[in-house]
Amino acid sequence: MVAPNDIAQRYEEIQLLIADDKIPEAVKRTMDFIRDFSDDKDNVNEVIVISASYTRLEKAERRGVLTFDQAEPQRNKLLYQMLALVDGVQAGLALTITT
Amino acid sequence: MAYKQGLLSRLLPDVCDRMDQDVQHTACEVKARIATDAVQGSGFLMDFAGTYAVTAMLRHTALILKLNYTKATDIPDKERLQSQMLALVDAIVEDYQTHAHSETARHAQEARKQVEAHFRQVSPPRDVIFACEGLGKTYKKSRFSLKNVTLTLRLGEITGVVGENANGKTTLFRLVAGELRHDAGSLAFPTLQRDDDQSVDWIEVKEQLAYVPQELPRWYGPLQENLQYEAALHSMLGEDNEREVMYIIERLDLAEQLDKRWTELSGGYKLRFSLARALVWKPKLLVLDEPLGNLDFKAQQVILQDLRDLANSLRYPMAVLISSQHLHELEAVADNILFLRQGEVTYNGPITELGEARQYNTFELDCSLDLHVLRERLQGFPYHRLYHNGLSYVITTPLHLNQATQHWHTGNTRKRAMSVCSRHRVYESPVD
């Protein structure tokens, strides 16, 4: 089990979940990450939007509204956005802690 | 990461040259792997990006390419992704050579290290939330008694209570939740009360304690409004209310069910919504009475993993008290286990120490042989007991099977029996 205060391991956990095609779990752990490490409510709002968009995308793919080829770029975009959010939180923390 | 050594570029330029040669050498190996086996190669690419990429986007791309290659089914898609992987290797080499030894990269790496060190010093809270000693309750009519329960619940920990029906689990949970009055022993909520007063101020405690009973009460009206109402009751208003409700809806994967009525929900989703209502206001103690009973295996695992992750939060940790009739449902996530049999505690302690005092191991055997044929096959194998429990065979063996079997038959017969024995170990639980 990843220690809750080990920010590096928490980040790595999210990356590995994505690489292993466990995206719903990765989204959940990103939500936990943001809640634990960010004071910015906008970050919480952003991760909620990412999660909601991913749920909609999955639903559309499941119902055949979107093909795999159509869904892939949208999924990639959401994942880039999610990883950038986590990076942004870490960068923000670095600024707060070092100044 | 290699770029953490950016300082070297100024002090030891020849070392940097060697590192630059290393990156090129490693890049060639990664490319060769991708070309021969892209599945394996994508894993190497991830490691390569993690080690050498200074720009975060390149690391992200490596992850996403690995994911997409796993998901792709068509050969043209796979070939396209494979060539993207090869191009990414070159991009990472260029990125490394351009940025790795720069001041900016060094600062970024140092700042990241400081953040990591900062949070390593922040100990996750493990305060005692609930403690009871010798707790008991007797029902005069049925003469059932829950006796002498001593229990400590801490933030971040999950405590599982295991016992068959009518052994006192619900009674214990109702005592903890303040739904029943105890008639023996004492209980306290050390960190939930502001005053050091000996008596429990239930109003104060219940503001931080969420109880999800076995029989879930029906919800009336739109599901989202129920959650908003619950959050509002705990002083979450306006934007905070909306955000917290949406957060818990997404976190527990409930968004697709919001349009339904309560009566249209499956048992699993009724439980998840009840859990959402309990969690939306971030309680410090969550009491769940047999939540897993009506769920299939996968739904059980999802709920338990969610509970484990949420209990373990750094910012909002909580203590979880959860019950089940089956140890195997809880053992993967619980930190502590308490067994109840006929109202008495037969084990209370860490899950890691459970079964240490046992004299036998018990296994399930999944095979279609008749009992007498199985007995024949196991002839000479030093088992203690073998029977069929209606679903599968159960075999009880000495603790040290390897030593015990050294004089047993060799060859195929032994191997076959050993393979069926190793399928699943079941603890010799005090309940069984």
Tally of separate helices of chain B: 16
The count of strands of chain B amounts to: 13
Strand content of chain A: under 5%
Helix content of chain A: over 70%
**Spatial separation of the terminal alpha carbons of chain B:** 52 Å
User: Could you report the average pLDDT of chain B, rounded to the nearest whole number?
Assistant: 86
Q: What oligomerization state is this entry in? A: heterodimer
Q: What is the count of distinct domains of chain A?
A: 1
Total beta-strand segments of chain A: 0
> What is the 3D form of chain B?
globular
Main β-sheet of chain A: number of strands, strand sense, barrel status? none
Question: Which sequence of strands runs across the widest sheet of chain B?
Answer: 5-6-7-3-8-9
Shape of chain A: elongated
Order of helices and strands of chain B: HHHHHHEEEHEHEHHHEHEHEEEHEEHHE
Rg of chain A, please?
Answer: 14 Å
What's the number of helices of chain A?
4
Greatest interface by residues involved? A-B, 46 and 48 residues
Structural class of chain B: alpha/beta
Q: Largest beta sheet of chain B, briefly?
A: 6 strands, mixed
Instruction: From the alpha carbons, calculate the radius of gyration of chain B and give it in angstroms.
Output: 29 Å
What is the arithmetic mean of pLDDT of chain A? 94
